[in-house]
Amino acid sequence: MKVIKNQSLPDKLACEGSLKNVIDALYVLNGKWKLALILSLVQSSKRFNELQHEVVGISSKVLAKELKDLELNDFIKRQVYPTTPVSIIYEATNYSETLKDVLAGLSAWGKQHREKVKESMRKQY
Amino acid sequence: MKVIKNQSLPDKLACEGSLKNVIDALYVLNGKWKLALILSLVQSSKRFNELQHEVVGISSKVLAKELKDLELNDFIKRQVYPTTPVSIIYEATNYSETLKDVLAGLSAWGKQHREKVKESMRKQY
């Protein structure tokens, strides 16, 4: 049952390779938090506690794991500054900036999705 | 430690609301498979087995759960056709099409990311 039902799709999405690309992208960006953490650090470098405060809903255990993953994959750097006590600051790398288009698309979509959810709740009650 | 370090960011990404938008988007699109499944069904409607074959790496248990989630959130429809035996076909809804920009961005990024990984493996060996 392989019927291309939407002829208005951009060619790049309709082609076979695009599904493989998206699977590969999600493999490294998996989970509910990585893109949000990358955006927060692209906006400005932050300490662990600042990140936890800004990315609402993440536990400290999960945050620590996600930061390690992101560092391993070259999206962020953990900088240790020799102040007293030492300051540990997380910074986005240049590679994180390659995700700007994805983040902008996701932000625009998240905004309209929130409006849609609000609208449907208004109708329900 | 709040320093805006990248002045070239588009305004819409730099603003406070964008992080909230991204967190909201990831809340509903969480996990490693949902966007890939949506893309596969936007390309064409499919049976369960066809989906599992195309989205390489997903188990049937996880696929069943993800399809239920996607149906609840209005991204896909499960159509039952009264053939013998009955045909169950999963179809993308119009709402899935609102994710086209996100999917196109993710596809482009996934492609360049794969190139980058290949390149760094070539250097290593």
In short:
The structure is a homodimer of 125-residue chains. Chain A has 125 residues and is mainly α.
Keywords:
homodimer, 125 residues, mainly alpha, Arc Repressor Mutant, subunit A, 2 strands
User: Which superfamily, in CATH terms, is the homologous superfamily of chain A?
Assistant: Winged helix-like DNA-binding domain superfamily/Winged helix DNA-binding domain
Beta-sheet strand percentage of chain A? 5-15%
The largest interface is: A-B, 65 and 65 residues
Total DSSP helices of chain A: 7
Structural class, judged by helices and strands of chain A? Answer: mainly alpha
Radius of gyration of chain A: 19 Å
Number of domains of chain A: 1
The residue ranges of chain A in which pLDDT falls below 50 over 5 or more consecutive positions are none
Helix and strand element order of chain A = HHHHHEEHH
Q: Helicity range of the residues of chain A? A: 55-70%
Total DSSP E strands of chain A: 2
- The termini of chain A sit apart by 40 Å
Largest sheet of chain A: 2 strands, antiparallel
Strand order of the largest sheet of chain A: 1-2
What's the average pLDDT of chain A?
Answer: 89
Quaternary state reads homodimer
CATH architecture verdict of chain A: Orthogonal Bundle
Shape of chain A: globular
The level 1 CATH classification of chain A is: Mainly Alpha
What would you say this structure looks like, in words?
The structure is a homodimer of 125-residue chains. Chain A is mostly helical. Chain A has one domain: Arc Repressor Mutant, subunit A, CATH 1.10.10. In chain A, strands 1-2 form a two-stranded antiparallel ribbon. Chain A starts with 10 loop residues before the first helix and ends with a helix. Helix content of chain A is 61%, strand content 10%. At the A-B interface, helix 1, helix 2, helix 3, strand 2 and helix 7 of A face helix 1, helix 2, helix 3, strand 2 and helix 7 of B.
